[in-house]
Amino acid sequence: MSVCKSAVAANFSAAATTYEDHAAVQLPTARHLAESLPPGFVPRTIFDVGCGTGVLTRQLTHRFPQARIAGMDLAPAMINTCRAIWPHPHVFLCGDAEDFDAEGNAFDLVTSSFAMQWFADKPGTLARFAHALSPGGIFAIAVPVAGTLPELNDAHNTALGRPLAALDYPTADAYVTWMIDIGLIPIHVETQPVVAHYPNALEVLKSFKAIGATFHGTTKPLPPRDIHRLTAAYETAFKQPEGVPATYRVLTLIAHR
């Protein structure tokens, strides 16, 4: 998946005020990630990679109220949101996690929810943050993997004659391998579908914009005619009594040093 960092930052900044109202998959995923951390593990220092508006940060502050949290995100407006909610001793940095310098840092927990898919060099970024772990520290991520949004992909293929290239996510096994390759030991590996339902297919597409996600990459947005064809194919194939589904295949992966 080709990613334009400046476009990602602009899109997510624009969605800072609407993100959590439309994060129907991201919210339960962050909660599940926090709940999946080992019993008895009480980190004093935490780094939240790609913290956004603090969906995962909120779960962490509730579970570990004595911990100091550092968060990083590419979107300035989202970082400002976190700074307003969680002042000192927590720290939120606006920057590219792929440029993070781990030298001199030691966090008991490095974690990330629904952010890793945006990194161009995923194994390199995992390795970079593994260096920021203290001895015995834990690295915990939740990330969409191969098989995410199959309804959208199938509708795109039916309506426009090609799959949606932006949905070419790595497999869960790839993330596990990358963790092992950087010297971490997986202790919890779980892949499960997380489904959100919408009144119609157009609302599915609108929900992506409301959270700052875009699947256009470096190409131009679809013209109205193609959007109509896409949404029609989506509803014809997948509409259910409870609405139109959008299914994410989500990996929860926890490893320690």
Detailed description of the structure:
The chain has 257 residues and is α/β, with parallel strands linked by helices. It has one domain (5-148, 166-196, 242-256): Vaccinia Virus protein VP39 (Rossmann fold, 3-Layer(aba) Sandwich). The chain contains 10 helices and 7 strands. The chain has helices spanning 5-14, 19-22, 26-35, 55-63, 76-85, 122-130, 150-160, 172-181, 201-210, 224-238; strands spanning 45-49, 68-73, 91-94, 107-113, 133-144, 185-198, 244-256. Strands 3-2-1-4-5-7-6 form a 7-stranded mixed sheet, with helices on both faces. α6 (122-130) links the parallel β4 (107-113) and β5. The longest helix has 15 residues, at 224-238. The chain is globular, with a radius of gyration of 18 Å. The relative contact order is 0.18. The model has no long low-confidence stretch (mean pLDDT 94).
Task: List descriptors.
257 residues; alpha/beta; Rossmann fold; 7-stranded mixed beta sheet; 10 helices
